[in-house]
Every structure is written in C-alpha cells, then in structure tokens.
Design goal:
Helix content is 43%, strand content 19%. With 373 residues, the protein is α/β, with parallel strands linked by helices. The protein folds into two domains: 3-174 and 359-371, Glycogen Phosphorylase B (Rossmann fold), CATH 3.40.50.2000; 185-356, Rossmann fold (3-Layer(aba) Sandwich). α11 (290-297) packs across α14.
C-alpha cells in the first residue's frame, strides 16, 4: 500500500478540498497521513477522519508566521524524511518535501497542489519584497515536484509559462454530485416572505470578496426592486460587525454558519447565488471558486464578477450573468429587472454543469496522476 504524507499549514478544521482529495486516495487503496498545524489546542493532536490519519504539529503558542513555519518544516524533515510520497498543499507546505527529496531521500515523490496562484494572492498586496522572495522559492522548488496540480485552466497555463514546466494537472475544487431537492429553509427560519427572490452569498468574511459592494448594491435595490433579498451565510473574523450592519437593512438577512452535512440544503433554499469578487490581484482574476459550483449544484443560477475564469464558465455554459461589479448602476439595472421567471432560461443548464464538473470527475484526474508516480 502506498503511503501519502499530506502536508497542510492549517489546523484542518474546514479545508474541504484537502478532505476530498485525502478521502479519494484512502478510498482507492492509499494510506494517508495528514500533517497539520496545532494552533487551536482544543483540537486533538491525533485523530482519524474518514480513514485519514491526522497528526497536528505544535508550531508554537504565539502566531508568528516565520517561527511557526520553521517549526512545522523542521518537524516534518526530522520525523518523515523516509516518506515516499508528499502531497504539498500550497506553497507553505512545499519546502520540507523539497529538502527531504534533495538531501535525505532522492526517491521521494512530490505532488505540489496549488490551491490558487500562490505568489499572486492578495496576501502579497503591498509586500513586493516578500512576494519576490516567494516567487524565487517557488521557482527553485517547483522543478523538484513530480506533479503539479492547479485549480483553474488559466492558472495552469500561467504556471507552465512562468516556470517552464509541463502544464499542471487541473483538479477543480468542486463538490461531489448529488441530485438536489429544493428546500425553503431560509424562508422558514428567517421569516422571509414567500414572494421574495433570495440571493445567497456564502463563505468566509474576507477582504476582496465583495461583501461591502453587496451591501451597497442591496441598499439601492431595496427601492428599485423590493422583491430581491440577500442572505449572508458567512463566517470568520469580523462577522459580528457585519451582523450589526445587516440589522438595519430591510432586504438583507443573516444566517449563522451551518454544518457541512446541512450546508447544501441551505444552498438549495435560495433562488440565485451571487459572488462579486474584486479584481485586486491576478489570483482573483484567474480564480474559479468552489462556491460557484456549490451554487450550481444547488440549482441556483449565478451572478458573478466578470473576472476571466468565472466569466468563461458562466458564459460558455449559460448558467447566469457575469457583470462588472465596479459599474454599480449597470449591476442595479440588471438586477432590478429580475423576477420569478428570470432564472428559467438558466435552470436546464445547471444539472449538466454540476455533473460535468463534479468531484467524481476531478477525482479521476487525481487518481490518474497518482498512478503515474
């Protein structure tokens, strides 16, 4: 049995992509040990989740990234230098596998799994020196990888051109396919009138994801199309302030985070999915976020920013609208014309797209990659 050591620089509490990939490997005969961090001490140091052995590494009590990273890397190099296959999630996880292969175990295999365009992410905005260093490290180490995975075709092409490597494998961050029933949980739990058309924004409350623009947009829509309402299903740092802002808006509702087991029922309780991500970095322009596929699986046509990859998906498969979120008046004009019948021209396209881009299809690429190692 092949043993995969999966490296992840977070506590592995809600990383759905890592869970799906690890679960797919376990279900197809691989042994998987997932090495994560242990910032939240209430989490067990060792656990078994769906057949995946999880070991959380103490990286220090204080969050100081350079020190945390060094402790994480040293632990892995010392304890796992005889490992055979290393699956590195993001750039932070690549260095220990690279050093192990170069110094201790030349037969080790490395799979570098880029969850985004690593060195073009928003964390590097305004940090040109750190960004340059990250690019230098990635360029140095990526050649040691036996396979590279990316999450959009545009990012794959960028990596191939940037580092002169074969085009990476494309494994989209999509949900498993399941025939979805329609639900009405938001109307039931939030007392939303039956005649309202519900737009859903779900995900982390993170700068650059267009939350402020949505508040501005629905403040205008309250008069111009009072049938439209927005539901936030949002989590993360700063959400208490957002909840307070929502309280004073008559057409915006707040719902607390729900369990992963119930999540798709809530998605399928809305009418449209909306995501006005801001074009603040190249990574955003080339991103194909998992929430778009969640909306589609839940039977929701989408309204998204006219960024490169999202526009391509939405227009090619006719599953909604791609708009310029910076042109607020044109967005309002589009949305004020939406009524109960507006989604009908997209509905028949949603299920075929959900099947085409399901996790079951992405899993085939992942397993083919591993068979080639």
């Amino acid at each position: 049995m092949k043993h995969v050591i999966n490296l992840l620089f977070n506590d592995f509490t809600n990383d759905n992509r890592v869970l799906k990939e690890s679960r797919s490997l376990v279900n197809n005969g691989y042994e998987v040990t997932l090495l994560a961090t242990h910032f939240k001490k209430e989490l067990p140091k060792e656990d078994v989740i769906e057949g995946i052995k999880v070991k959380r590494i103490n990286v220090g009590r204080i969050k100081f990234l350079p020190l945390n990273l060094i402790r994480f890397w040293i632990h892995i190099v010392i304890k796992y230098r005889k490992g055979n296959i290393f699956h590195c999630n993001d750039l932070y996880a690549l260095p220990p596998a690279y050093w192990i292969k170069k110094i201790f175990n030349k037969d080790a295999k490395i799979v570098y799994d880029c969850h985004e365009h690593e060195t073009e992410a928003k964390i590097y905005l305004g940090k040109p020196i750190i960004k340059k260093l990250a690019q230098m490290f990635e360029k140095k180490m990526i050649g040691a990888a036996d396979a590279v995975i990316t999450v959009s075709s545009s990012i794959a092409k960028e990596y191939s051109k940037l580092y002169n490597i074969p085009e990476p494998y494309l494994v989209l961050n999509t949900p498993p396919y399941a025939k979805q029933k329609r639900y009405d949980l938001f109307r039931e739990e939030l007392s939303i009138p039956k005649d309202k058309i519900i737009f859903l924004f779900q995900g982390g409350y993170i700068p650059g994801r267009g939350v402020d623009r949505l508040l501005e947009l629905f403040a205008l829509l309250e008069k111009r199309n009072p049938k439209l309402v927005l539901v936030f299903l949002v989590y993360g740092e700063g959400v208490e302030e957002l909840k307070e802002r929502v309280k004073d808006m008559g057409n915006v509702y707040w719902h607390e985070k729900v369990s992963p087991l119930e999540y798709m029922k809530y998605v399928a309780s809305a009418d449209w999915g909306i995501y006005l991500m801001e074009n603040i970095c190249l990574n955003h322009d080339l991103a194909l976020p998992n929430k778009i596929f969640d909306y589609i699986l839940g039977g929701l046509p989408v309204v998204v920013s006219n960024l490169k990859e999202m526009t391509k998906l939405v227009n090619e498969y006719n599953v909604g609208y791609a708009i310029d979120p910076d042109n607020l008046e044109s967005v309002v004009k589009l949305l004020e014309g939406i009524d109960e019948n507006s989604k009908e021209k997209f509905v028949n396209n949603l299920e075929p797209v959900a099947k085409k881009f399901s996790w079951e299809e992405q899993e085939k690429v992942l397993l083919k990659l591993y068979e080639s190692l």
